[in-house]
Request: fold
Amino acid sequence: MFDKILIANRGEIALRILRACKELGISTVAVHSTADADAMHVRLADESVCIGPPPSKDSYLNIPALLAACEITGADAVHPGYGFLSENARFAEILADHNLHFIGPKAEHIRLMGDKIEAKKTAKRLGIPVVPGSDGAVTPDQDAMAIARAIGFPVLVKAAAGGGGRGMKVAHTEADLQLALTTAANEAKSAFGDASVYLEKYLQKPRHIEIQVLGDGRGGAIHLGERDCSLQRRHQKVWEEGPSPVLDAAARAKIGNTVAKAMQELKYIGVGTIEFLYEDGEFYFIEMNTRIQVEHPVTEMITGIDLVLEQIRIAAGGDLPMAQDAVTINGHSIECRVNAENPVSFRPSPGKILQYHPPGGLGVRIDSAVYQGYVIPPYYDSLVGKLIVHGKSRVECLMRLRRALDEMVVDGIETTLPLFRALVREPAIIDGDYHIHWLEQYLAGQKAD
Ligand code: MV4
Reply:
């Protein structure tokens, strides 16, 4: 087991990792920019190192500074959290070159899943259902039209190096296709340095359902059910829940076992999330994330498995916590990402938190690193904290969420709490009857009112 873990992140996920380390008896090194000197994870870590000025490129993305911090403190492993360097294969390799352990998948798997074309080819080879589309990259001069006709319009042009919604263009008709290809390729070239694009059938109103997996790196892998993340705004998840309101046990077992088997074949190590679009009872693979995700607490609440603790144990050579048939989905969990943003315009609202009262009670969890008097810096994401609620059923979970939201106080800055107080009372949400475009249509309707 590791003696000392350097947490190469900030905010709530740094605190989350720190908690798992403490429960494993592992000492912790916090790193921070000058803007985060008063951050909670710095206060609670055994040691802390300032790694640079506020801009991420000069601090949390500064690999030489992170290596120096490992050297100074004698850390033997690094946990990247999510975002920043968490899916940077080169970082994983550099750590290995310095005899430091990267708590995450093998660099080859990070690289593989970072290329959306290779990821899709691998998924298909491993028996995971994928969206109908081109077999690899298409070039504007290549007969992309024939491929698009075979798929059927509307089609989506996607950047191989994209992901998370970046570098996507819809072509509704043949006339649109050439422009969509050229625009997507040019944008991909300037955004990612790689102009490769591929085609997919455009699914009009799917849900976003992702499967959590855990692999031991030796051919063992289990799935831990799904999270429905369809409520998004501009590709930012807002409300995530598990299990999905539209999946039954048979559908869950079928797709879960398909994914677990694929991870066994890959000899995948650590946590991973396979993202699907789900429409008319069919799953379509779109991407795989090779990191711990913001919304991991939803899975923890319904399975009772501490995903970050398992991530660390498995990285140190440990076995999976249980066999697949011991994984049970108990009750229902919903996570709301409370951001320091105006709830209508979503304009960031950094500043000092004057009053902070988190809700409590049975089945209520707050993953947050803020406190009364904390100043939210303008340099990073605007997450105040994640309100995660669990109930024996979705109805009980919704009622508990409504109570917790009404109890929560964050004064001094604007937050998206009012949005969640409205959503939890919205009939379509109460019925679980929504898709990936539902929230933006709802917000547009609010603005129109
Ligand atoms: C799609 C799609 C429809 N059809 N692919 C957006 C980000 C990345 N995860 C993939 N995304 C999409 N891929 C096909 N073939 C619609 C989206 C999409 C989306 C997906 C999940 C959650 C929210 C979304 C919002 C807009 C578009």
About this structure: The longest strand covers residues 221-233. The chain has three domains: 4-103, 132-201, 207-448. Residues 132-201 form a domain with the Dna Ligase; domain 1 fold (CATH 3.30.1490.20).
